[in-house]
Amino acid sequence: AQSVTQLDSQVPVFEEAPVELRCNYSSSVSVYLFWYVQYPNQGLQLLLKYLSGSTLVKGINGFEAEFNKSQTSFHLRKPSVHISDTAEYFCAVTPASGGSYIPTFGRGTSLIVHP
Amino acid sequence: KAGVTQTPRYLIKTRGQQVTLSCSPISGHRSVSWYQQTPGQGLQFLFEYFSETQRNKGNFPGRFSGRQFSNSRSEMNVSTLELGDSALYLCASSLGLAGGKGSRETQYFGPGTRLLVL
Q1: A105 with B43: Cβ contact below 8 A
Q2: How many CB pairs (< 8 A) connect A and B?
Q3: CA atoms in the 13 A half-sphere facing the CB of B94
Q4: CA nearest A90 in B: which residue?
């Protein structure tokens, strides 16, 4: 069984400031990790994913995330946010072993960028 | 290339009725997955279809079913609707199986169908 905890339900930040959205997970097996963004009235869009290799993953729109196995975390960061980054962000995990694909999502973090 | 399209975008039904939602994947994509998004339960995986076969299934009752056609288009059906089925239903497509061994195909999501059950 897996679980995902997004530690902040809402993160307000000023434009051009850095931001970190936190994600912790729990799993009895190895996992793959994902961050998605959802803009109002739209579906999800993949920002980045970690499957293996370098623990620092770079994604689209200037976002990056670092996989920390010992702390079971996968925090999302951006050095300078824009108004257009205002959206809901979801962290997700899937089992890495076998072909089973049952993703588990966090409850989401609402990023609100103020001018 | 056109994105994932879902029809209808909005739907109102009453308890006990059944509903069918449709999803057209990106051209060339063979996998279609369905998700339910509610304020109470968040985002939950329903099932994935690849080459007309259900390959993965989430923890939902049998009232939720789906199918995929030879052109990769997919439909999801919910029978005997309950108030709690009110949700945004998202469809996502990928080139290959989303949950292949040792890989995770990138999924592309549609805008969703918002279902309200009265």
Answers
A1: yes
A2: 59
A3: 17
A4: B43
Q: What one-letter code names the amino acid at A45? A: Q
A36: tokens are 């998605």
Q: What is the pLDDT of residues B13-31, one digit of tens each?
A: 999 999 999 999 999 999 9
Cα–Cα distance, A20 to A79 (Å, whole number): 9
| Distance separating alpha carbons of residues A47 and A56, to the nearest angstrom | 13
User: Domains in chain A and their CATH numbers?
Assistant: 3-114 (2.60.40.10)
CA A17: distance to chain centroid? 18
CA-to-CA separations, B43 to A90, B10, B36, B39, B53, in angstroms, rounded: 9, 18, 6, 9, 23
Rounded distance, CA A17 to CA A10, Å? 16
**Distance linking the first and last C-alpha atoms of chain A:** 41
| Angle, alpha carbons B35-B41-B45 (nearest 5°) | 25
Residue B101's pLDDT band (cuts 50, 70, 90): low
Per residue in A62-115, pLDDT (tens digit) is 999 999 999 999 999 999 999 999 999 999 998 887 656 788 999 999 999 999
Query: Radius of gyration over alpha carbons of chain A, in Å?
Result: 14
Task: Provide the CA A38 distance to its chain's centre, in angstroms.
Answer: 11
| Rounded distance between C-alpha atoms, residue A7 and residue A107, angstroms | 9
SS3 at position B8: coil
A90 contact B CB<8A: yes
The stretch A26-41 carries a mean pLDDT of 91
